[in-house]
Amino acid sequence: MSNKQDIPLWVKGLTWFLRFVCGGLFIFSGFVKAVDPWGTVFKVEDYLAALDINLLPPLLKLFVFGLCAVEFIVGCFLVLGCYRKTCPWFAALIMCFMLPLSLWTAITNPVPDCGCFGDALHISNWLTFGKNIILSAGIIWLIKYNVRCLCLITPAFQWLAVLASGVFVLVIEIIGFYFQPLIDFRNYPVGEGLYAIGGGEEEDMPELRFIYEKNGEKREFPLDSLPEEDEDWKFIERYEVKGDKTSEKEEKDSKEKLHVYDIDSEEDLTNELRDYSGKELIIMIPKVREVSPATTWKLNSLWEWSEANDVRMIGVIAGNKEDIEIWEDLSMASYPIYVADDTSIEEAVRGNPGVIYMDDGKIIWKTSLSSIDIDDFTAPEIRGAASIFDRDNAMILRYCVFAYLIVMAFLIFISFTPRMARLLTGLASKRGIRHH
Predict the structure, then answer these.
(1) Which residue, among 348, 341, 91, 97, has the nearest Cα to 238 in the 3D structure?
(2) Percentage of residues in the chain with pLDDT exceeding 70?
(3) In the 8-state DSSP scheme, what is residue 255?
(4) Of 144, 219, 307, 336, whose CA is between 20 and 30 Å from 383?
């Protein structure tokens, strides 16, 4: 009976190739979603809305954190050959859920983008289904042959690889959730502007159209006739049109920057806000009904700080007029409030509320309100220099990745040390025999 390792070289080569391809896809998918957990939460909410499923927010966030971590860890272990029997079966279990889900998404198109690669890479729903078919085929191959190829980390140390991978992805998720994503894949990066160009120019501005769904029926609404939330209509997507035609460029441009409107007149004030020169603190609330009243103290403290330091502070809120009026009364807001599309707000900054600090029309930093320590922010020595709260996300990410790679490289090194020792001993023995 032949040894299980005694397999053709091409089988080993194909197995290693599929390890890298399948594992790489899982790593990429898990990492880009873990970097931006809020974006993943929003995408899962779209799926749940299409399926008419209500999930408590804490459970939803726990599910998202777990999904990203599992995808990333499974991908790493496929590449490294850890848990050679268990890992491919675990990946197959994931695909038993993802494959039919992607088929349903491709057929019914409940969301325009599957979200499998977060905001880092947008692919069509049918392409996603095709990708999952190929990925599933590769995993089936690995179920049979993965165990016949070498593992890079010996079983004795694989639990340390689980721990290191889990800590790494959890740190990335916490930073992305509590502060902002370490990699910003959206259209509002630091150093660029926030507002759309051309706002307020009626002859140049395309018309907004919104798609809502109710009881399986999808209907298109103009901006001035949006359904009320208590009518059970669920928002699906939006686009912009000029006349009766929508070009791909116009649809792309409509999602790139923020349009801001007056609450009462619904006049587009984008140009007016964009042309402001000076320091500016923008409070952005995509879901005003879900904001805790406890945040009003922190917001009013920021308002007092902005007044004392010659910084303009405004609020940009998504919601109908009634919701915003309730919020104004509850928060006793002294700062001006404008209205914008919730999707654009969620793209601009993560968090509910989120905070953007700008200087001369350029984004300096972004964060969630919950991450701001008011005592530090309003300290006398800070005064108008709020730009010091900017974080070097690229450096933080480099340190996290470097530390993780060092740990994994060390585990691989100590795993191969006994193998190298046995190899050298064997070579020495062969040389000794030859000498005799």
Answers:
(1) 341
(2) 85
(3) T
(4) 336
Residue 177 neighbours by CB under 8 Å, 6+ apart:
37, 38, 61, 65, 350
CA distance 242 to 37: 34
Tell me the three-class secondary structure of 374-436, residue by residue: HHHHCCCCCCCCHHHHCCCHHHHHHHHHHHHHHHHHHHHHHHHHHHHHHHHHHHHHHHHHHHC
**SS3 (DSSP) at 78:** helix
Q: What angle do CA 215, 218, 224 make, to 5 degrees?
A: 115
Burial code (b: 16+ CB inside 10 Å, e: under 16) for 65-88 equals: bebbbbbbbbbbbbbbbbbbeebb
What is the Cα–Cα distance from 119 to 95, expressed in whole angstroms? 21
**What does the pLDDT read at residue 26?**
96
Length reported for the chain: 436
pLDDT of residue 217: 74
- pLDDT tens digits, 328-380: 888 888 889 999 988 889 889 998 899 999 998 899 999 998 888 888 777 77
Angstrom distance (rounded) from CA 223 to CA 262: 13
Nearest to 368 by CA among 353, 386, 357: 353
Which residues are CB-contacts of 14 (< 8 A; sequence separation ≥ 6)? Answer: 141, 145
pTM for this model (two decimals) = 0.78
Strand arrangement, sheet containing 207-214: 217-222, 207-214, 234-241
DSSP symbol at 187: S
Distance CA 224, CA 235 (A): 15
Structure tokens at 41: 């939460």
Q: How many CB atoms lie within 10 A of CB 387?
A: 12
Nearest 5 degrees, angle CA 318-CA 236-CA 331?
15
The owner of tokens 């095709």 is: 130
pLDDT the model gives residue 251: 47
Give the SS3 label for residue 195.
Answer: strand
Integer Cα distance of 183 and 164 in angstroms: 21
Q: Cis (ω within 30 of 0) for the bond into 353? A: yes
Task: List, as one string, the DSSP characters of 256-280.
Answer: TSB--B-TTT--B-HHHHHT--SEE
pLDDT per residue as tens digits for the range 124-137: 889 999 999 999 99
